[in-house]
Write a structure and sequence with these properties.
Alpha-Beta Plaits; 4-stranded antiparallel sheet; alpha+beta
């Protein structure tokens, strides 16, 4: 199992309850194929720079989950079948690297 992040662009929902239903469908697809959802971040409605499937804006959601890499193609295919999902981009989650302390050089006087 590997950690992934999925950025989903959904058709804007007129009501919050409709959006919750759409997110539950995405979560159910991940769980159905053996994954586990770690968290969801709602990023809100944003306008596109150019129309996407004749729409001017979409609702962005970032979902973090663990999943079997062998089943990733099947998961992407299932997301393409849903009419409410305009786009889905799944990438490997980047682990946070601890910052190293920067040591400033000391000036030496001659």
């Amino acid at each position: 199992m590997k950690s992934y992040e999925g950025l989903f662009i959904l058709y804007p929902a007129p009501e919050e309850s409709v959006l919750d239903d759409k997110l539950e469908i995405i979560r159910a697809e991940i769980v159905k194929l053996g994954g586990t959802v770690a968290g969801m971040t709602r990023m809100g409605k944003n306008a596109f720079s150019r129309p996407l499937k004749r729409k001017e804006s979409g609702y962005y959601v970032l979902i973090r989950f663990t999943f079997d890499p062998a089943k990733l193609v099947a998961l992407n295919h299932r997301f393409k079948l849903h009419e409410d999902i305009l786009r889905a981009q799944i990438t490997l989650a980047v682990k946070a690297v601890p910052k190293k302390e920067v040591v400033e050089p000391v000036a030496v006087s001659a």
